[in-house]
Amino acid sequence: MYDVEEIRAQFPILSRRIGKAPLVYLDNGASAQKPQVVIDAITRGYAEEYSNVHRGLHTLSTISTERYEGTRDVVRKFLNAASQEEIILNTGTTEGINMVAYGWAMPRMEPGDEIVLSIMEHHANIVPWHFLRERQGVVIKWVDVDANGDLDPQAVIDAIGPKTKLVAVTHMSNVLGTVVDVKAICAGAREKGVPVLVDGSQAAVHQPVDVADIGCDFYAITGHKLYGPSGAGAIYVRRERMEEMRPFMGGGDMIDQVTREAVTYNVAPMKFEAGTPSIVSTIGMGVALDWMMDLGMETIAAHERRLRDHAIERFKGLNWLNIQGQSESKGAIFSLTLEGGAHAHDISTVLDKKGIAVRAGTHCAMPLMQHMGLGATCRASFGLYNTEEEVDRLVEALELCHELFA
């Protein structure tokens, strides 16, 4: 049985108040709160066990290295990768995608070569490809969503042409909540010999992810959305693609030998991890992923589906409320606008006075917002600790916004 109150008790911040109101944290799409077990791991990492990792022979370095490298295997399990050697640890999805852009795509792309993107992509999965457009003449091909906010996998596959070198697509929209059938996209792209990068920043938080089943070549995640610390993340890279990549950054740890004349690199994945890493944050991410897996990803997904369905039912009574994206394959993420033109920032400010934390703006997805003809939305994104009562509080606060701005 999913005991949400027991889960909430593990998050110290959820007991605080914002002004006179209890906190309702609905900004999980931007960054999630941290359970006590993660906070304890971070405190222990700095207070009792801290040292730099790898090569150190003393006790603290050995402990830190074991815990840090242990996270690599936790990520492997979390994503069901075949081997730890297919997991690169980094600072998050943004670094992971840039690593693919610089380390894999840049050396093999010529002017006129194409990258296929969906219009739903986060800027982290757009801007690195614009770099290649600006610097190497790469062409970006866009695939739009339909009126419901769905992305047709066949439309993505059909966009693949003889000059397409990569498909880069989100697994779950951070604006619309749409869950994309990335497995179908990967299967179609594989038939055409084109690798697929999946941005898993949102999807990995809300549902089980199996990269072996999906069949992708790259899958990026970020720790701070996964109830872990900021500054830690990982990317799965299929072994064949790993062998094709060149190092993204140079420095310590990623080398084998350095002389005046030459440098030889460490074995993968180490050759893609230059310098002192975010040690304690990475350890904390591993603890967070273990904690989530102990809860059960299917169990988490079922709880969030209940929240989603309850929110949809409650929103039906608000005929002045617009929900952007009506996909049947949708997570518990809602981008909202009000009839009458109330700005998302004003809505967010009123909600904050009621203790409700949401996000307002373009959500690092400007092409999608332009496609929808919107300047901004107010986004409520739910997590594993949210409740149906908090949905009700959101509705009450939105009703107040309607009274104020109608």
Automatic annotation (TrEMBL):
The keyword Flavoprotein does not apply. Keywords: Pyridoxal phosphate, Transferase. The keyword Nuclease does not apply. Residues 24-394 form the Aminotransferase class V domain. GO terms for molecular function: cysteine desulfurase activity; pyridoxal phosphate binding. Its EC number is 2.8.1.7. It is an enzyme of class 2 (transferase). GO terms for biological process: cysteine metabolic process. It catalyses: (sulfur carrier)-H + L-cysteine = (sulfur carrier)-SH + L-alanine. Its cofactor is pyridoxal 5'-phosphate. NCBIfam families: sufS. Belongs to the class-V pyridoxal-phosphate-dependent aminotransferase family. Csd subfamily. Catalyzes the removal of elemental sulfur and selenium atoms from L-cysteine, L-cystine, L-selenocysteine, and L-selenocystine to produce L-alanine. Catalyzes the removal of elemental sulfur atoms from cysteine to produce alanine. Seems to participate in the biosynthesis of the nitrogenase metalloclusters by providing the inorganic sulfur required for the Fe-S core formation. This is Cysteine desulfurase. It comes from Limimaricola cinnabarinus.
